[in-house]
Design a protein that fits this description.
The protein has 118 residues and is mainly β. 0% of the residues lie in helices and 55% in strands. The chain contains no helices and eleven strands. The strands form two sheets. Strands 2, 4, 5, 6, 9, 10 and 11 form a seven-stranded mixed β-sheet that branches. The chain has a four-stranded antiparallel β-sheet with strand order 1-3-8-7, with no helix packed on it. β5 and β6 (57-59) form a beta hairpin. It is globular, with a radius of gyration of 14 Å. The termini are far apart.
Length: 118
């Protein structure tokens, strides 16, 4: 089994910054993709950013230039640096690790709330 624990969310004013962390524990295969998703009330869960085990990154267009994803493979941890926060960034942010179907599929964290006040 795999457990993901997110941290770093909170209430911040527009223009501020946050750093989210997600630590994975359990049976972790080295070849994986870790990512951050977000879901606002009444909306679907959307990809924010992802990073492969060899550090290939992908960002949603809406966050390019403001969000930076990184990872520490030794700690099985993925980070999301969020700068220039906007009220529309308000959402629950979820961490996901994907090992692929052959290695157990994907696992999700419980989410961390980010609220941006205007």
């Amino acid at each position: 089994q795999v457990r993901l624990v997110e941290s770093g969310g909170g209430l911040v004013q527009a223009g501020g910054s946050l750093r989210l962390s997600c630590e994975a524990s359990g049976r972790i295969y080295s070849k994986n993709t870790m990512g951050w998703y977000r879901q606002a009330p009444g909306k679907q869960r959307d990809l924010v950013a992802s990073i492969t085990d060899n550090n290939r990154v992908n960002y949603a267009d809406s966050v390019k230039g403001r969000f930076t994803i990184s990872r520490d493979n030794a700690r099985n941890t993925v980070y999301l640096q969020i700068n220039s926060l906007k009220p529309e960034d308000t959402a629950t942010y979820y961490c996901k690790v994907d090992f692929g179907i052959s290695y157990g599929g994907a696992y999700w964290g419980q989410g961390t709330q980010v609220t941006v006040s205007s």
